Amino acid sequence: MGLYDFTFYDLINRNARAYNNRPAWLEVKDGRALTYGQFKETVDRLASGLQQRGIEKGDRIGVVGKNSLEYFLLYGAAAALGAIVLPINWRLSPEEVVFNLNDCEPKALFVGQEQAPLINEVKERLGKDVQIFNLEINAAAFSCIEILLDNPGFFEPADVSADDGFVIIHTAAVAGRPRGALLSHGNLLCSNLTIDYYLALSQQDVHLSLLPLFHVAGLFMATAIFQAGAHNVSMHNFDAAEAVELIEQHGVTTLFEFAPILAGILDAAEKAGKRLPTLKAVGGLDAPDAIEKYQAMTGGTFYCLYGQTETSCVATMGQYDDKPGSAGKPAPLAAVQLVDDYDKPVPAGQVGEITTKGPMVFKGYWNLPEDNSHTFREGWHHTGDLGRFDEDGFLWYAGRKPEKELIKPGGENVYPAEVEKVILQHPAVRETVVFGVPDPKWKEGIKAVCCLQEGKQLEPQELIEFVGQRIARFKKPQYVEFISKMPVTDDGQLDREKIKKQYGGDQ
Questions:
Q1: Of the four, 123, 269, 449, 492, which is 20 to 30 A from 166 by CA?
Q2: Same domain, residue pair 370 and 461
Q3: Using a CB cutoff of 8 Å and minimum separation of 24, what contacts does 150-156 make?
């Protein structure tokens, strides 16, 4: 480690000294609470246990489970050893879970109690050397995590730099396979500083941690709170009515969300006759009506942003009221440039591909050198997203490039090509085009327009369930429309833009 390096484990040590007796984490499910001093002590014991079982710098530690104290402790222990956390979306299908795990070959795997049947089903398809542990205390499916925690906490610190990998988060499938985005300690700390700056976080803040720790927004918001010396109140399962009670009970001041979380909380608050005046800052992506209702009810401020896993969650950010509908301006430590198809900058008002550079840009895709050569061009990370800058420097999101068209129902990433591939496995379907449509609950829904094989019949719900049985259920279409003939271009290809324009109206 160099003189100017700083890692997440350095942050843990700093906080143990600076905020020793201040509350760091509350686990709502069972009421367990740790101060910053206790958090560091527990991280050291877990790191010691992992090291005794052969975990070294650069090794991957897989996690399949819901949010918990142990989940967050694993991030700390991995940081101490220089290991890399591989959080897996537990909503994925068994095939997707196996692919993501085997893609990165973890030496250890931690499994939540609810996810134990899934891992038991697929464990024979995983690497032979992977050690499997329970993620939760008193669970019985695999080796007990208590064994790892039952030691004095002495371990050999690794030589870890800010530039070393810290977490691999798989993005939605491109060209038939997910891609593991490798993020460094420096990426994490840069994003934390950005979030802390915009939300004006301090030691007095309380964060309701409700986004999953496998998601870049959930992880980076929890660590941003940690970096500010504030208090994380963690929900194992989201429930809107319970969230309202927790906000009131603990004086929650901030949270990050994706539609329809905020609307659910506000509706539950109204039913309970509460206005949530402590909730001063909410960030994320949501519809204008939910945002404006939140601000009117609480007096708080909503923060909009543009970002992706590859930009460590945040590239631009700003208050909603500054320019309603925009994604704010480039973050203090981020450069954002819009370019044409020839990678030449475009002027304000013109749509171009969003490119970024700065300390928040990820290290690259795991074991995908060709993809990295494509995304890192001319000194910039090419996001595949489109946007435009207005005359005041605010970024306005304008969709995705055709090769990277993406649908985001409830904050999840879904590529149409992945859904189309599954739909075409149904013997009754001849052709399909999948795209995003407005959705009152999820902000963006998934719609499939299909042509059936001659003489075949199929009900929309039957096709929806067919897809949901083969890939993660959040990727199945919410809407299906059967038509007799697909529009085509002059060269005989499916005219995707015409199909979207003709069949993509309000649902």
A1: 123
A2: no
A3: 150/45, 150/49, 151/45, 151/48, 151/49, 151/52, 152/45, 152/48, 153/41, 153/44, 153/45, 153/47, 153/48, 154/44, 154/48, 155/44, 155/47, 155/48, 155/51, 155/80, 155/81, 156/51
